[in-house]
Design goal:
Layout lengths: L2 H9 L3 H14 L7 H13 L3 H16 L6
Length: 73
């Protein structure tokens, strides 16, 4: 099965199940450490924002991106 077929299958799922797929996809990014370039990009966004809530959200993403998720280890 390829990505196009998987995406087509997701389109046919009920909304609640599509939401589960989206949540899973969002967690994939934090399972492995980010590249230095991506970390730098998010750090720059964090420093430049004037919104403390956004800054905190970015900080949490940076930490997760730096360490990755070792639950697969």
């Amino acid at each position: 099965m390829n990505a196009a077929a998987i995406i087509d299958e997701i389109k046919h799922l009920p909304p609640a199940e599509q939401k589960q797929v989206v949540e899973f996809a969002r967690t994939l990014e934090t399972r492995h450490p980010w590249s230095g370039q991506k970390l730098t990009e998010y750090e720059k966004k964090m420093v430049e924002t004037n919104d403390p809530v956004e800054a905190q959200r970015l900080k949490e993403q940076i930490i997760a991106g730096f360490y990755g998720d070792d639950s697969d280890a």
